[in-house]
């Protein structure tokens, strides 16, 4: 068996026994810049456990010497219980490029893997914070979302109610950096003063990001 450490790869003889992964890592979705954590529990008798990110070894744990942490952003915590040994991989300051397959591998055993999705919370804005709207005037409100991954889901609200999707159109584009922009245009005619809210949402956000504009209705009479 070849083992990855800070001194490169080396061969460990005598590892002919078969051990198993009892509980492997589970899928995770996190915001860029935060931590991602994965657990892998293996049966007793294990000798070497290797964590891989997109096929590249990033951390090795030895039953006799502990963890070999060779990359600053990849660290581990270890737990031992009656169920076996659990290695927790911690990825610090996650980056968009970290998205992909996270695998826990033990010698002579089938590896177990999960997928990491790193998402980016971009900016959201409406150019004007207040607008004056006249009677029978049709207005367009533009909401701009910049630098997101994946492209955010855009919705609109007036006061506390969602606006029908037929009232607005959203255009999306992707830049060379892999980030997405979105431009949503709401068209409506008001009969009263209203607070309009544009919301942008991705899975990793606990709550949608929002931008608001107050439309002050002025009766022509």
TrEMBL record:
Q: Name one GO biological process term.
A: cell-cell adhesion
InterPro entries linked:
Ig-like_dom (IPR007110), Ig-like_dom_sf (IPR036179), Ig-like_fold (IPR013783), Ig_I-set (IPR013098), Ig_sub (IPR003599)
Any GO CC annotation of this UniProt entry: cell surface
| Record-annotated Ig-like domain positions | 13-121, 122-214
Domain of life, per lineage: Eukaryota
Q: PROSITE patterns this protein is in?
A: IG_LIKE
**PANTHER family documented for this protein:** IMMUNOGLOBULIN SUPERFAMILY MEMBER 5
Q: What is this protein called?
A: IGSF5 protein
Identify the species of origin.
Answer: Uria aalge
Q: Which gene encodes it?
A: Igsf5
């Amino acid at each position: 068996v070849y083992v990855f450490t800070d001194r490169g790869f080396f061969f460990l003889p005598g590892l002919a026994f078969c051990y198993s992964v009892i509980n492997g890592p589970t899928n995770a979705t996190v915001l860029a810049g935060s931590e991602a954590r994965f657990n892998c529990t293996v049966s007793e008798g294990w000798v070497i456990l290797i964590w891989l990110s997109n096929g590249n070894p990033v951390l090795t744990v030895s039953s006799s010497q502990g963890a070999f942490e060779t990359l600053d952003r990849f660290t581990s915590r270890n737990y031992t219980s009656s169920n076996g040994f659990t290695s927790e991989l911690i990825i610090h300051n996650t980056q968009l490029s970290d998205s992909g397959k996270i695998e826990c591998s033990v010698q002579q055993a089938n590896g177990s893997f999960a997928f990491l999705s790193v998402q980016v919370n971009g900016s959201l804005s409406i150019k004007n914070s207040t607008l004056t709207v006249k009677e029978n005037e049709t207005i367009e409100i533009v909401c701009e979302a910049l630098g997101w991954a994946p492209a955010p889901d855009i919705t609109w609200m007036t006061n506390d109610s969602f606006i029908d999707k037929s009232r607005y159109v959203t255009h999306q584009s992707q830049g060379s950096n892999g980030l997405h922009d979105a431009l949503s245009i709401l068209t409506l005619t008001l009969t009263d003063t209203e607070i309009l809210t544009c919301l942008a949402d991705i899975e990793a956000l606990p709550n949608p990001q929002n931008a608001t504009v107050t439309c002050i209705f002025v009766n022509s009479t």
